[in-house]
Specification:
The complex is a heterodimer of chains A (113) and B (113). Chain A has 113 residues and is mainly β. Helix content of chain A is 0%, strand content 50%. The termini of chain A are far apart. The model of chain A has no long low-confidence stretch (mean pLDDT 92). With 113 residues, chain B is an all-beta fold. Chain B starts with a strand and ends with a strand.
């Protein structure tokens, strides 16, 4: 099946631990994005990548890191430096950047205990 | 700077009523795109429509219709004869020109029997 997969769906982390969220796509899309969603708020961009081995910071990149070693994969690491990591994280892809619609994965809900 | 305003935080209607979700945007770009996404309780965002800034024709897709007015910088979304399955959070977004999407804060629509 074509699409975007995110794992795990629910993730619990102890304060002070790093955790990596997975995002995989088989749509052959060039661009990939990570968003954070908090209750009552819109989506805020964390990082995005237009091509392999290249990525840019979004609006709220502090405390997060990413890599783009393969076109299909764009994992997001939430580091211990992120002061308020509990949120819903959404990964999206776009065929090419700029103007096109983005397709979203099912999301990962991260809770810090 | 780009901005999207969805002033309606939550709307409740009874099934079969018509409902309009408002979206007002701000941008200095002459070329841009407007989007609507639906987020059901499962969390995944579902793409509904993309509108090019040069195309002000209204669009209808089944029970959904969109009214784009550049003069008032608005891109409103109407659901005719609402159904319980329409209950979701709806996001309006602004993008284009190689820039990332800017999302509004979303409107929670509740359709009751």
């Amino acid at each position: 099946d074509g699409g975007i997969t995110q794992s795990p769906k629910y993730l619990f982390r102890k304060e002070g631990q790093n955790v990596t969220l997975s995002c995989e796509q088989n749509l052959n899309h060039d661009a990939m994005y990570w968003y954070r969603q908090d209750p009552g708020q819109g989506l805020r961009l964390i990082y995005y990548s237009q091509i392999v081995n290249d990525f840019q910071k979004g609006d709220i990149a502090e405390g997060y890191s990413v890599s783009r070693e393969k076109k299909e994969s764009f994992p997001l690491t939430v580091t211990s430096a992120q002061k308020n990591p509990t949120a819903f994280y959404l990964c999206a892809t776009e065929r090419t950047t700029g103007g096109g619609e983005q397709f979203f994965g099912p999301g990962t809900r991260l809770t810090v205990l | 700077a780009r901005k999207v305003t969805q002033a309606q935080t939550e709307i409740s209607v009874v099934e079969k009523e018509d409902v309009t979700l408002d979206c007002v945007y701000e941008t200095r770009d002459t070329t841009y795109y407007l989007f609507w996404y639906k987020q059901p309780p499962s969390g995944e965002l579902v793409f509904l429509i993309r509108r090019n800034s040069f195309d002000e024709q209204n669009e209808i897709s089944g029970r959904y219709s969109w009214n784009f007015q550049k003069s008032t910088s608005s891109f409103n979304f109407t659901i005719t004869a609402s159904q319980v399955v329409d209950s979701a959070v709806y996001f309006c977004a602004l993008g284009g020109g190689g820039n990332k999407l800017t999302f509004g804060t979303g409107t929670q629509l509740k359709v009751e029997l």
